[in-house]
Fold each of these.
Amino acid sequence: PQARILSSPEASFAMKAEAATAYVLLDAYLWPWAGLIILLFGAASIFITHKIAGPLFAVRRVIARIADGDLTARVKLRRRDELHDLADAMNHMTGKLELIFSVLSDRFSSLSSHARELSPENASVSRSKILVEVEEVEKALEQCKFEKNERRDGH
């Protein structure tokens, strides 16, 4: 209604002044509230992004350590951070990998010692089979170490 009054040639000066005053008052109330709302949304967006971006950065850092062969790395998040389910799943997976590599290493050591203990006269065929298996495990472990060193060197 104020816009019609201001643009109407028939409206009196007093009516136009009253309409203009209404616009000025609206403007005086509107902009401070709009500014406050913008500030609140800005603060909320910073808070929310930090609750997500911080944990993602921590997960990324731990993934890099795991890729470099450090299976003791774990994701540690603050209590109020998001992505705890992802961090727990990743920590569980890394724990399993650590256990698997530990068992594999123990078995390799055990196979190596048993292969060395076999005497050639009573178990030459078994010994050769064990040695072949040991060499395959050793090659696989060496390949893992080679890939780890390659990633560390940036190739």
Amino acid sequence: TLTPEPGQYIEPQFSPDGRTVVYVKGRGGYLTSPWHGLDTGVYRVAADGKGKPERLTKEGTAPQFGATNDAVYVTRADVKKEVDWFSKLVRIDLDTRKETEVATSELVSDYAVSPDGHWLAYATRNNAEPSLMLRDLTSGDDRLLLPKIQRDDQE
């Protein structure tokens, strides 16, 4: 058990060294008490269950590490002009809590940072077709990996 506190815990991911787990604490309700859904957000905790979970941010989903243990990436959704939804990938430095926006798009559905931390794969729409893209995180260059992917290919 990573935390003795009841709640809804989803999207767990191990750090590269296997010593830390990051996860999302969601809202309570349905089968769990709403009281167990207080203090939602993205947390980290020691993988051995020792120590208290620490909230990294109040907002974010799909937490993931890159090549090192010093930063966590989270996906956030937001709205421009009341109807224009977009998602962004944010890097959170675990020592300073400094947040850096890595990618933003109105058409991205998923982000995945490579294990070496050099690449970012993401599903998007390219010429109105679902596609898979790859970004070099050093140069910022994007390239099309798979054009016209099918829904089954995305899952």
Amino acid sequence: ICLPIIIMSRAFRRGYYRNQTKLRACVAGSGTLLNEPTMGPQVIKLTGKSDPRDVTVVYLGTASYDIIEKRDNQTSWYSEQGCTVIALDVVLNAPETSYMKECMQKADIILVSGGNTNFAMRRWRHIGLDKLLKEACLGPHRAVMAGGSAGAIW
């Protein structure tokens, strides 16, 4: 399913994101589905940008332990369309907070791999990436959340 989702979280009820009432997300049962020619255009469409060359995809492979082959399988279609793909690897070493923040600010799409959800969530909390993801997707920038399997439930 690839559609805008209305959020009724505590953050919205408390007015934290006053002017933002919609989360843009595309989720699938498998991470590789979002790399398919039938799904990829729908993810890009949610960004509101007509030219894929203007789209930046930030890929988080934390749930699949930043394995390069998985990243390539899940991002190749976007690269072929001309999107800029940034891999934000955080499993072995935590990047500087300023770099993670810069990536989130550039992101039109945040694509999260499938794999071990519990590991990814713990790691993101430990390095502060969870808060940056929340701001990127729910703040004024409103990056599109995308993922399959574990990447769909973060």
